[in-house]
């Protein structure tokens, strides 16, 4: 007997409408107009990028064989991201773009991983574990990026990170959307 089961699943770092979110694209970089959220001065920064990685999937099974189809996207949250107007400089915008690019880099790594994994009918747990690992890796990389670049103020480190991120994105170009 052959049985087929299709179960859609959507999980993300944040919840809410996606209408005002920007999906990462190599064709479009951030502008200061994208930072439309209320300023959170208590954070002590000149700008703040809210990003998230969303994923959804559907799957079918025939016996022990599971076929899964994933959609994974790095998103910039325009209604939450903010900047101080008097601090809007090119170097800072490039730094904030780096945060968004890191989210895309980890989204590509997740796309690569799901293309290699042989999922079982416990796919919900397996996908969630993979997503949590990816999210944790992304959060760690975001912190390291800020530490090493001193929030973009260390020009040489900022340039090194920009080059490294661009190289890593290129290496994973097969997993771009």
How would you portray this structure in words?
- This protein has about 180 residues and is α+β, with helices and mostly antiparallel strands.
- The chain has one domain.
- The protein contains three helices and six strands; from the N terminus they run ββββββααα.
- Strands 1-4-5-2 form a four-stranded antiparallel beta sheet, covered by helices on one side. Strands 3-6 form a two-stranded antiparallel sheet.
- α1 packs antiparallel against α2 (about 125-150) and α1 (about 90-115) runs parallel beside α3.
Residue stretches low in confidence (pLDDT < 50, at least 5 long) are 1-18
- Write the element-wise H/E pattern from the N-terminal end onward: EEEEEEHHH
Q: Give a quick account of the main beta sheet: strands, pairing sense, barrel closure.
A: 4 strands, antiparallel
Mean pLDDT metric: 90
Roughly how many Å is the radius of gyration? 18 Å
Multimeric status of the protein? single chain
Ordered list of secondary-structure elements with their pairings:
Blueprint: E1 9-12, E2 21-23, E3 47-48, E4 51-62, E5 65-77, E6 82-83, H1 90-116, H2 123-149, H3 155-171
Antiparallel strand pairs: 1-4, 2-5, 3-6, 4-5
Helix pairs in contact: 1-2, 1-3
List keywords for this structure.
3 helices; 6 strands; four-stranded antiparallel β-sheet; alpha+beta; 177 residues; disordered N terminus; two-stranded antiparallel sheet
């Amino acid at each position: 007997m052959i049985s087929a089961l299709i179960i859609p699943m959507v999980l993300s770092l944040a919840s809410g409408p996606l209408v005002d979110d920007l999906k990462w694209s190599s064709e479009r970089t951030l502008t200061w107009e994208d930072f439309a959220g209320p300023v959170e001065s208590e954070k002590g920064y000149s700008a703040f990028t809210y990003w998230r990685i969303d994923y959804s999937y559907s799957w079918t099974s025939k016996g022990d064989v599971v076929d899964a189809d994933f959609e994974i996207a790095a998103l910039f949250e325009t209604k939450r991201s903010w900047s101080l107007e008097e601090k809007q400089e090119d170097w800072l915008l490039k730094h904030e773009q780096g945060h968004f690019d890191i989210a895309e880099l980890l989204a590509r790594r997740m796309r690569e991983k799901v293309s290699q994994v042989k999922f079982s009918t416990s796919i919900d747990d397996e996908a969630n574990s993979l997503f949590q690992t990816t999210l944790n890796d992304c959060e760690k990389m975001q912190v390291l990026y800020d530490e090493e670049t001193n929030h973009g103020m260390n020009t040489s480190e900022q340039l090194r990170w920009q080059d490294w991120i661009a190289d890593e994105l290129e290496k994973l170009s097969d997993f771009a959307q």
